[in-house]
Amino acid sequence: MKRIRIAVVLILSILNLACRKEGSEKVNQDEIWMDYRLIYSGEHDSTYSRVSFRHGSKQGESLKLSSRSSITINDDKPLFNGGFMWYQSVVKGFDSLSIFNYEDVDGKVFTNNIQILNSIDLPEIDTIYKDSSIYFPWVGNPIEEDEVIWLVVGELEDKIPYISIDSVGKNGLFINTDSIKGLPLGDVSIHFERWYKNQVDGNSVGAIGYGHYISKKRQVHLINN
Fold first, then answer.
1. Which CATH number fits domain 20-115: 1.10.1740, 2.60.40, 3.60.21, 3.30.465?
2. N or C: which end of the chain has fewer CB within 10 A?
3. Over the chain, what is the mean pLDDT?
């Protein structure tokens, strides 16, 4: 019983460290790392503008902004989600651009325009062959600089089963047998995700910004040829 109690205490301590968060006024303002996202979900036909802050790096402690700092998205104040530790605004439909304005407690202002460069959708297809390599095009522009495209096939408990391509000028990808060998035969869900890495204004520890277009899902048959 004593060992069980010790194990529980250790697990809770690890979880507490992993979820640590603090106010942005308690850290050096030049050490606030920023993560900007503009996400369109075809499944929900909604666009999500989202920003989060961490201390020092992507792996740093999550930060909630001080009352002496501010964040606006398209001139409106976003809602803060304490569970995910991000600030977010949502609009119905597709919006390809959001303007983020962040001012830290020292009065330094960061303005970042985050863009979804291109849309992407699934072609008219109802079957994928598990035992054969096939070429799978998308509906949308060819890949441009700083873009990556995922084809997400099915669902697995331990990972997202996706096939990616970032070759500029391509307008499709190959589904190889190794890519989907872990999936069972039958009906599976597929969708495309298109990522665009934006250039962003950050401080000494950096920042990232992505435009992310997620197509509607479709059920297809996964069979052997």
1. 2.60.40
2. N
3. 90
How far, in Å, CA of 66 to CA of 2, rounded?
A: 42
Comparing 20-115 with 127-197+211-223, is the CATH topology the same?
A: yes
Residue 141: closest CA among 169, 99, 112? 169
* 188-214 residue pLDDT tens: 999 999 999 999 999 999 999 999 999
pLDDT of residue 42: 98
> What span, in angstroms and rounded, lies between the C-alpha atoms of 95 and 115?
9
Which amino acid type is present at position 210?
Answer: Y
Residue 191 C-alpha from the chain's centroid: 15
Contact indicator for 54, 33 with CB cutoff of 8 Å: yes
Domain boundaries, the chain: 20-115, 127-197+211-223
pTM for the full predicted model:
0.87
Q: Is 36 helix (H, G, I), strand (E, B) or coil?
A: strand
* Residue-wise pLDDT tens digits, 33-82: 999 999 999 999 999 999 999 999 999 999 999 999 999 999 999 999 99
Q: What is the CA radius of gyration of the chain?
A: 21
211 bridge partner residues = 38, 196
- CATH code of the domain occupying 127-197+211-223: 2.60.40
Is residue 3 scored above 50 in pLDDT?
no
How many degrees, rounded to 5, is the angle at CA 95 between CA 125 and CA 208? 95
Q: How far apart are CA 131 and CA 6, in angstroms?
A: 49
Across 7-14, average pLDDT: 43
Q: Token pair 């201390």 is at which residue?
A: 55
